């Protein structure tokens, strides 16, 4: 396993984020509406210098929550910390608008930290499936992700298909859940912002306890931006109420305290399913103005903007009104910070990002270290993500070099597949090195 020495990790990248170039995006985007972007080769200018395997490891940034869960003697308390871990795993996504590099077939990534060790492998190319297994003395965490990414004209929808599973050996318990969906808004014009939305159900398969978490869609008045709330159930009996924001905090309180607070503050929480993003579009509803903008779209106007950009000169030059593009402005959260239900306990709070994060793809401290290649890492597998030259060049600000290497690696992958199939009578007999395809008894249907 790759292990960093003395727990000292870098807090920045070798070079700041590159400047976007003026390239016409029409040829890339006009044929992508409604299609799965995970199957389409995108230019390096969309990428951040991490592989998707490394991005998956960011689930583990708050892995101590699983250890804390395993230390609890009450099964309800164990579940509430597993729920906090499920929410915390999404926090790294906030303001991360760069697309990770698609892993090559057979690519691996391994890492060891004081709280865990983890191994990832790209087990399928079409469809792209990434598998991981993390463990420590107190827990196991594993799963596979098949990300479906669709461009709808004004937004990008990400569906992280796959079941995530946590095992606590001390208690002989297994928990599983699926991640919520994500939408990135203002892809064409305006400042990018994202929301997670949908309902996830975390199930303890031994006791039957459930945590049902609702990631709220933003809504027209933006009251529910980033808001998550839910309930821990024992059968039909509601035990705990969970609430917070997936970007920064999750709290819990007993259900009686929540009901009393709700009675005194009826407008603080609204009961809705929140399963769909009201700002999502489909190809049938993509306005003509979106297509007209695609014809003249340049990369510099397409993506020099992020949630942290506030300069006037970064605003779109087209001042004509667009009633269809009501989401041009970034919505502001109005509620969660002001909510403090009596008898609440804070389960998780996000760690602050580095001051220079905006200059380095909005990476967290944890993300900054994931592609770090130290002198003592002499036993890495040749397939490790850290050794990919295209990612390494992008990390050092060499965009042109990254483009060349990315194209070379993708062409090599295609040639290798052709050779494999030719050798085996048209059949592709490739098999993962570390991961076996088995039926997971806890797989959830989505």
Describe the secondary-structure layout.
Blueprint: H1 26-29, E1 47-51, H2 52-57, H3 64-71, H4 75-88, E2 99-101, E3 108-113, E4 116-124, E5 129-135, E6 140-151, E7 155-161, E8 163-168, E9 173-178, E10 181-185, E11 193-204, E12 210-215, E13 227-234, E14 237-245, E15 249-254, H5 255-264, H6 288-296, H7 299-303, E16 345-349, H8 365-369, H9 389-395, H10 399-423
Parallel strand pairs: 1-2
Antiparallel strand pairs: 3-4, 4-5, 5-6, 6-7, 6-8, 7-10, 8-9, 9-11, 10-11, 11-12, 12-13, 13-14, 14-15, 15-16
Would you write up a description of this structure?
InterPro entries: OSBP_sf, Oxysterol-bd, Oxysterol-bd_CS. The protein is α+β, with helices and mostly antiparallel strands. The chain is built from 10 helices and 16 strands. The strands form 2 sheets. It has a 6-stranded antiparallel beta barrel. Helix 3 (64-71) packs antiparallel against helix 4 (75-88). It is globular.
Give the class from helix and strand content and strand pairing: alpha+beta
User: What assembly state would you assign to the polypeptide chains in this entry?
Assistant: single chain
The span between the termini is 33 Å
Strand numbers in spatial order across the main sheet: 6-7-10-11-9-8
Fraction of residues in helices?
A: 10-25%
Order of helices and strands: HEHHHEEEEEEEEEEEEEEHHHEHHH
Gyration radius (Cα, Å) is 22 Å
| Major beta sheet summary | 6 strands, antiparallel, barrel
How many β-strand stretches? 16
Helix count equals 10
Unreliable segments of 5+ consecutive residues: 278-285, 300-327
Dominant shape: globular
